[in-house]
């Protein structure tokens, strides 16, 4: 030991102290994932020992100097059946176990808190319904299930939180969701795990899991002043959506009140559920599926609204659970067109910028 | 008396045959225009070794960059190009053709008792296509590189990169036809050109493995070709198949790509398994245990291998119920591999085992492939895959299978058939050392990556958080050991061409038809077409034959 210089020794000690070998367990899923992991590791060790023992034992016992004459034999149906059925049985156990975990991770409880995350080269933009916007960071409360709705603005990304044992691809043009419930307050790695170009390895951030009180404090102190639904409301007016979706019987477009999560009959006889993906698709590609009783006159908004803007609009349509808000909006939009006062400060997305003529009814 | 092992023929008295495929004709032209499957195999051997060296240097650069957490050795763009080229070269220009196009090309006609493959000119064309494909890929690299990753994921590859994507895709497209032609040749040869008495169940398992591989080559590769054409058209003409803003579906690319690229994994591993069957049998001096089970497990892998591709996409928003089906099918495809492992192990039971270099590589294969295969079950388990996919766990898993399994098998095969191909023996002590060094280097390189994967370190990161460094240092240290393991054969194998001991016809006392003829073989392989009158791996037949020869000569 005396031969190692103290500086080098300190360096080595420090280096080995930062030697992570197992990720923190910080979500309700993590213990389940780890249990499955250790069971799989156990299977691997048993399999290795079995094969290793067989090979080593035979290699020693039947080496040529010890066993000069090989004894020829055919196969054995019984043995073949044994090592077909036993591995198959073990694999099927893991299949069922893994499937249960998969369905648990990808099917959130109904009362989850909603967060939206947009991936783009090379950052994560998180949006809370209350109007908190973050980049490469996500603040969440512990003890409350959080559902993250993901979408990518450009290429495939993947939203990975190793400490929570969850990961979900952010796909261009399609919402995906992932859910987790943090258990331990702390700061955890957020990675993009799908290769996405030059700065793929810089598309990282932190998850801040906070006690609910702290989270509430954080949320109150970091809101942009307008909720996503309010931003959506404004955008709805700016884009002139209310011209057709006026909510009365003379309107050319369907009434959006109570639309969210309802079943809609299409002209071709099929029915669809008006979920987030449906609403997004209708804004960008309105003539693809036409609801029964309407003609496809709505223009496409492809390229005119950013993914954040679309999230705002979807949040707004979700919030339309009463005609009251709709009529209130109608009055307000007239106000807005007269005097376009900004609602909230930053982070309205490019779509929220006033477009020439867009506010005309 | 018939079952007594007699001493091996004295190799000191062995002479190189006066005429062989190597000295039938001389001159570059006689090689470049040859129709001889053995010469084409040598051409392939030289070219894939060339690409392996390039791919290996790129791997060394990757490990050097990852020695430290920051992206300080090269720019991130450069790193992205390096790992992309490493993947593209190693997969399409090394692993896919490795065993089939070299060892398979050399041996399939010998093993079925034919004078050549069914279509010698197509065989030569296949090598030219491979070389042209290789030149395209090298051109893409030299002109500035490609940074798509070997997976060419859209829309990144179609709309967000301005590197030589189309050139590289063209190269893979062309090299793909080389692989299709090889597969075609093998299938027709095995069906039509078996010698009298060579029934399907007398074929060596090497041939069964290659037959199964050929099925995948023929059915899978065209899908890859189409996919790459679509990527090129999307890039050049913006046709919108994979572009959601034009009504296309980016997931469609994933489906098409993995429809080839998962079976391609079996293109890479089945020939390796085929080699292992021969090596284990020869050095245990025993017929492969459960011949039919091993033969059919190859076919089962080829068939089931086509039905599991979606397990690469469990987190990509595919239907949860379809994921269920694909997870189940993936579990099923793991079973034939387990069957093979147990049958090989049982082949050693009551054998008479010796430990020459090919056998050492085969032991390495055993250990590494078993770990590689079992960690595949982690990834097939849907809930576990969520955490592990796209991390270093996947990198470690497929390197255990592809490098630990396939490359070990390839080296086992090269060392096993080297005396047959060249007529000379490599130095035994140093080649055994190389096998051991490779094994140790491999474990040190890739085992830490499993831990990194569970920690969550993502693939394809030029920079990583500092707490992952220690494991990465281990991995890089291991890579340098592994590099030495691979360099050794590059020296002693060419050395043996001139200075190696004369091997003789059958240095391992193996039973295959290829060992019953001179080493190196004649251009026409057999003086007269043999008649197969015994089962494969019939060591009593071999003992009788040798004894008979000893008696008639002596």
List key phrases describing it:
heterodimer, A: 361 residues, Immunoglobulin-like, Cytochrome Bc1 Complex, Chain D, domain 2, five-stranded mixed β-sheet, 8 helices, disordered C terminus, B: 554 residues, mainly alpha, Cytochrome C Oxidase, Chain A, globular, disordered N terminus
List the helices and strands and how they pair.
The complex is a heterodimer of chains A (361) and B (554).
Chain A lengths: L5 H12 L11 H33 L15 H30 L6 E8 L2 E5 L5 E3 L1 E5 L4 E7 L4 E5 L4 E5 L5 E5 L5 E7 L12 E6 L1 H11 L5 H11 L24 E3 L5 E3 L2 H9 L22 H13 L3 H16 L23
Parallel strand pairs in A: 1-5, 4-10
Antiparallel strand pairs in A: 1-2, 2-3, 5-8, 6-7, 6-9, 9-10, 11-12
Chain B lengths: L27 H5 L4 H29 L10 H20 L2 H15 L7 H23 L13 H4 L5 H28 L12 H33 L12 H35 L6 H14 L15 H29 L8 H24 L1 H7 L3 H31 L1 E2 L2 H28 L13 H31 L1 E2 L36 H15 L1
Antiparallel strand pairs in B: 1-2
Explain this structure.
The complex is a heterodimer of chains A (361) and B (554). Chain A has eight helices and twelve strands. With 361 residues, chain A is of the alpha+beta class. In chain A, the strands form three sheets. A five-stranded mixed β-sheet of chain A has the order 3-2-1-5-8, with helices on one face. A five-stranded mixed β-sheet of chain A has the order 4-10-9-6-7. A two-stranded antiparallel sheet of chain A has the order 11-12. In chain A, helix 2 packs antiparallel against helix 3 and helix 6 crosses helix 7 (307-319). Chain A is extended and about 95 Å long. Residues 323-361 of chain A have low confidence and may be disordered. Chain B has 554 residues and is mainly α. Chain B has a single domain, classed as Cytochrome C Oxidase, Chain A, CATH 1.20.210.10. Chain B has helices at 28-32, 37-65, 76-95, 98-112, 120-142, 156-159, 165-192, 205-237, 250-284, 291-304, 320-348, 357-380, 382-388, 392-422, 428-455, 469-499, 539-553, and strands spanning 424-425, 501-502. Classes of the chains: A alpha+beta (361), B mainly alpha (554). At the A-B interface, helix 2, helix 3, strand 7 and strand 9 of A face helix 3, helix 9, helix 10, helix 11 and helix 12 of B.
